[in-house]
Amino acid sequence: MTKPNKWQSILSSANDVFLNCGYEKTKMDDIAVGAGVGKGTIYQYVDSKEELFVQMIKTNVSYVSDVLMEAIEESHSIEAFFDRLLHKTLFMLNKHGEKISFVIYEDLSRISNQLQEWMAENQEKDMQRLSTMLQHFMDQNDIRDVQPEVAAWLIQDVLRLGIYFQVFRKQDNIEELMRGEIDILLKGLK
Amino acid sequence: MTKPNKWQSILSSANDVFLNCGYEKTKMDDIAVGAGVGKGTIYQYVDSKEELFVQMIKTNVSYVSDVLMEAIEESHSIEAFFDRLLHKTLFMLNKHGEKISFVIYEDLSRISNQLQEWMAENQEKDMQRLSTMLQHFMDQNDIRDVQPEVAAWLIQDVLRLGIYFQVFRKQDNIEELMRGEIDILLKGLK
Amino acid sequence: MTKPNKWQSILSSANDVFLNCGYEKTKMDDIAVGAGVGKGTIYQYVDSKEELFVQMIKTNVSYVSDVLMEAIEESHSIEAFFDRLLHKTLFMLNKHGEKISFVIYEDLSRISNQLQEWMAENQEKDMQRLSTMLQHFMDQNDIRDVQPEVAAWLIQDVLRLGIYFQVFRKQDNIEELMRGEIDILLKGLK
Amino acid sequence: MTKPNKWQSILSSANDVFLNCGYEKTKMDDIAVGAGVGKGTIYQYVDSKEELFVQMIKTNVSYVSDVLMEAIEESHSIEAFFDRLLHKTLFMLNKHGEKISFVIYEDLSRISNQLQEWMAENQEKDMQRLSTMLQHFMDQNDIRDVQPEVAAWLIQDVLRLGIYFQVFRKQDNIEELMRGEIDILLKGLK
DNA sequence: TATGAATGAGATTTCATTCAT
DNA sequence: TATGAATGAAATCTCATTCAT
After folding, report:
1. Is the CB of residue D185 less than 8 Å away from at least one CB of chain C?
2. What confidence score (pLDDT) does residue D98 get?
3. Of C23, C107, C143, the CB nearest to D190
């Protein structure tokens, strides 16, 4: 087995075990067994359990950011944006499944300060890009004037809802639920 | 010191330490010191660290449920409901502050299966009550026909937003943001 | 078993095991077993293996310093001094046996910088006191003019010789050898 | 790079690293890097870390023995012997510097029993040769009757003093100190 | 012959829980 | 009832050695 394959095995195993057991309950032994390598091998690639966790989270976070960014780039109206967001989210949930839940439902500040800062910066960037897009739509009268910060938060909530009902509630009508949320966000409850 | 006072001290200390350090990093020693009692004394009231954690979470969860329930009970229109939700949430955030964040941003299933089930039931009850209320408003044509599950999720998002921007982002325009979200939920982005 | 007894057991066991195995080869498990306590108990008294080692060495070093100091205090001539040094050294070798060898024949700088500094200061103090005494004897024409530093070194060599031939060579004519060395130091080889 | 050069690089690197870090703290990795060879290459020349250490020590020990032996061979009086000892020791200290301190100030028995035996034999041979020389001087009335064992120990102490004050105390008046010690050994303190 | 990625036994240290006082 | 000293299972990480290339 060549070098990149080992690292991929380790990262993939780390993903599974950290996700199922949480950071503290995860044992390096389990990750090693899951990856089919010796315990010491992991330490050829990272210096500590914490660093391995950070590597894993960074990979997964980028999946979520990518969905948002790709949806923004190609969209010229809010409807088109939501449409792409919907499809890309469903695709990502299908592909990366549960991996994402860690990113959304865990307070990572207690695991690594460095990671928390990185996450905050990342989140800030996503917020900025969403806000820019929303401001653009407001200038074009595509949507009415609202606080971009709040609108951005609600757009991210479409992702949150998808993850929550798929990963934690195990429901299978995710698309329907997301369409329902988008509908309310566009037209309101009244 | 009489018995009830000791238990209150322990619970209060547990609150502080679990919140600051997370479940795994919290040491029984620290809780004992914070409560001003001997380590062994804690085991007069609970059988394990896990049980102490469960006791603490249950207390805090009820704050959140209470806000929702009180807002439901007194409201005869969606606007009145949101209005009460806003005020009660702000009051709770002020009073119980960060305690709530644990309930929202920690995956409790890894700490205790029993707790997770309890949380799921609780959440289900909240959802049911919100759905019933929303169905009532739909029957009265106070709001248009939407999926109650999704609407309930979005209503809870008003709480989520408040907690996130207060506890994690330390912003001080929480009321404004919540009003903005409620406005979007009522009238939509268009 | 009361608290001071446990600590004495631990210190005594540490003495034995560190002496027989050396710092690195010594396992905390062995010390615990030797002391008849649990491994964790050791960490109630010291924070680390290194600190335990430092505590042990400091105790033993003081035995050696004490021999020198007591011999100095009571002596008014070089012969009287050597006489007392001889007897006190033999007594100490009898009582504390091999414990002392560590102090003389190990480069402690690699185990703990803090300890090395402490040892250097200690050594400096011993040297100072010996030099003062020797200067006094020189002023009184009890001995001829020599470099106090060298004479102090040679006096300490009486201790070194005793430890070497007893601990490492296991000879039993230690007193005779020490008397021989003192004789040469006083009268010279010629 | 040809074979003998590799072995010389390894031995030289082992010297540096063992000396600076001590046996246990020395890593085979560091020696390999220092020698500019792969880690596995070292195992072409020795079977284990211990064997590499033994090889290194044996080389260094011979420097010390050589000084004694060369001083013995050419000397026909105790003064001539000490004179040569002085010059050869200073030369050796200059050339091999700190390497020797390991031989004097480390308890090698804990690293390798085989090595300790070898050292003891070596030491015994040195002692024998010194004793023979001293006996010869006593027969010729060049020096008075003393225990040869003790006199031999004190002669070796001239080397010890040189190493101690140069390597550990970093003093630069080594020659003066050694002359002072030789003077006391010859004429005594009285 | 030369390499260095891979290995896993074994080290130190932590901390929830117990129990003698 | 209240205590905290004592415990030991279990965690992370190291590094001498091997072996496929």
Report:
1. yes
2. 76
3. C143
Closest to A112 in 3D by CA, of A60, A54, A42, A59: A54
The pLDDT assigned to B4 comes to: 65
Contact, A162 vs B135, CB < 8 A? no
Of A106, A143, A181, the CB nearest to B189: A143
Q: What is the mean pLDDT of chain D?
A: 90
CB D60 within 8 A of CB D103: yes
Q: Domains of chain D (ranges plus CATH)? A: 1-45 (1.10.10.60), 57-187 (1.10.357.10)
Cα angle at A107 between A104 and A108, to 5 degrees?
95
Q: Which residue of C has its CA nearest to D146?
A: C180
Q: Which two tokens stand for residue A132?
A: 């820019």
Q: Residue A84 pLDDT > 50, yes or no?
A: yes
Taking the CA of residue B39 and the nearest CA in chain A, the distance in Å comes to 23
Assign B35 to helix, strand or coil: helix
Q: What is the pLDDT of residues B7-58, one digit of tens each?
A: 999 999 999 999 888 899 999 999 999 999 999 999 999 999 999 999 999 8
Classify residue C57 as exposed, middle or buried by CB count within 10 Å of its CB (0-12, 13-18, 19+).
buried
Strand F contact nucleotides, protein CB < 7 Å: 1-20
Which residue type is seen at C68? L
Tens of pLDDT, residues A22-65: 899 999 999 999 999 999 999 999 999 999 999 999 988 888 89
- Whether residues D161 and C153 touch (CB distance < 8 A) is answered with yes
Within 10 angstroms of residue C129's Cβ, the number of other Cβ atoms is 16
